[in-house]
Design a protein that fits this description.
Blueprint: H1 2-21, H2 26-67, E1 83-87, E2 92-97, E3 108-115, H3 120-127, E4 145-148, E5 152-156, E6 160-164, H4 165-171, H5 195-210, E7 214-223, H6 225-237, E8 262-271, E9 274-275, E10 281-282, E11 288-289, E12 293-299, E13 302-308, E14 312-320, H7 325-339, E15 344-346, E16 348-359, E17 364-377, E18 380-387
Parallel strand pairs: 2-15
Antiparallel strand pairs: 1-2, 3-14, 3-17, 4-5, 5-6, 6-13, 7-8, 8-9, 8-12, 10-11, 12-13, 16-17, 17-18
Helix pairs in contact: 1-2
């Protein structure tokens, strides 16, 4: 509008100038011509500036509209790594790169699964070929295998559990809380293997030997022997600090060389292409919700710790439509309006499978596609789970 008004003014001035031109002498005409030319050049520059300003205002408005939320975003068009921004309340916002399967096509399946014991007879010789058949015990019943020789314990049944006493003693003095470790902490490498090599070894052991469908190393904690020894000394010199969890089983360790550099791995199990819930818990009604977390530990001695809690067997699948994202964000808004007031930035958004119990006695579950939102509160990572099928929060 401003540009049009300026143009009308220019046209009127030009018409008046032509009329005056006819009445002037040649000398005066020359002076007036020069004046008009300078004036028109200035008006042209002003017109260009107005057009540029109008364009900038339009871009600013568009940017402002884009940053107010992501109502227009659709999960069908989302790709792994897409940035998502949504202003939830005055003190809470979602600002994260969404995590989706690399081949995401905007669809997810509801899976029916059953937790079954691992095939101990098949796995035992595959995982631990150095143990003879007659050395295995069956204390936990038929179809299970357990073993101990004073230096390590092994159990294969509902899960696969393996640890050496060396690891058990050292882990008791690990100077870290996995829920509070920052991204730039415990990230060093040791001479016996790189972090990349250890991750590859762990994933191969779980998929090629244990037979899991898919796993992914989420975090590797590099724990140097010096820090473990310092914590060991502190605990043993301070009666109120408490002792290690080994209960006296471990070795007496008097020097830093008595400990090992350790890689401690957090690993997520995948089923049907989606990661499983990372933290098991018991609901308020005392129903157990399993997870897909796996822990493994390596030293220069090799694998010294493995904890695989669940074996998920798919018994059926149903393709489901996901609810619109605005319904998901509405549940987030409600959550923060009712329960959380401090400044909060949700920096994690991932589609996962949440095991919803069907029959505790038969150990059957429905794996429901769920949006997992993650943020930090009080130094700890917290999670909010929104059902991707109906947009409602899953309360733990």
């Amino acid at each position: 509008m401003r540009v049009q008004e300026e143009q009308k003014e220019m046209d009127a001035i030009l018409a008046a100038s032509i009329l005056l031109w006819r009445k002037l002498s040649m000398k005066r005409k020359g002076l007036l011509l020069l004046t008009c030319m300078l004036f028109l050049v200035g008006c042209g520059e002003q017109n260009n500036k107005l057009q540029e300003t109008a364009g900038e205002e339009k871009n600013m408005t568009q940017k402002s509209e884009d940053e107010t939320g992501t109502e227009s975003m659709s999960f069908e068009t989302m790709k792994n790594g897409d940035p998502v921004f949504y202003a939830l309340t005055e003190t809470a916002k979602l600002e994260a790169d969404v995590v989706l399967p690399e081949d995401w096509q905007g669809k997810a399946e509801l899976c029916h699964v059953k937790l079954e014991n691992f095939d101990a007879d098949l796995l035992a010789p595959e995982l631990f070929p150095d143990i003879r058949e007659e050395e295995w015990e069956h204390y936990y019943g038929a179809g299970t295998r357990d073993y101990t020789d004073g230096t390590r314990d092994i159990l294969i049944e509902q899960g696969v559990y393996y640890y050496t006493y060396n690891w058990w003693e050292q882990e008791a003095y690990f100077p870290l809380n996995r829920q509070r470790v920052k991204e730039d902490e415990f990230v060093g490498e040791f001479s016996f293997a790189s972090r990349e090599e250890i991750a590859a070894q762990a994933e191969a052991w779980l998929t090629d030997k244990v037979g899991l469908e898919e796993v992914r190393v989420d975090r590797i904690y590099s724990v140097p022997r010096e820090l473990i020894f310092e914590e060991y000394q502190r605990r043993n010199s301070d009666p109120e600090a408490g002792t290690g969890k080994s209960g006296g089983v471990g070795l007496e360790r008097n020097t830093v060389e008595d400990f090992n550099d350790c890689y401690w791995l957090d690993i997520t199990q995948y089923v049907n292409g989606l990661p499983l819930l990372g933290d098991a818990f018991t609901r308020q009604d005392e129903v157990y919700i399993p997870d897909g977390e796996i822990l493994m530990g390596y030293t220069e001695n090799g694998l010294e710790d493995a904890c695989i809690v669940q074996n998920y067997v798919i018994t059926g699948k149903e393709e489901k439509s996901l609810c619109p994202l605005d319904a998901v964000f509405a549940s987030l808004v409600k959550k923060f309006e009712l329960t959380i007031s401090a400044d909060t930035t949700i920096d994690g958004m991932q589609l996962i499978y949440f095991p919803y119990p069907v029959s505790s006695e038969e150990r059957t579950y429905d794996l429901i596609p769920v949006w997992e939102f993650t943020f930090t509160e009080g130094g700890r990572r917290q999670h909010i789970y929104i059902n991707a099928l109906d947009g409602k929060e899953i309360v733990s």
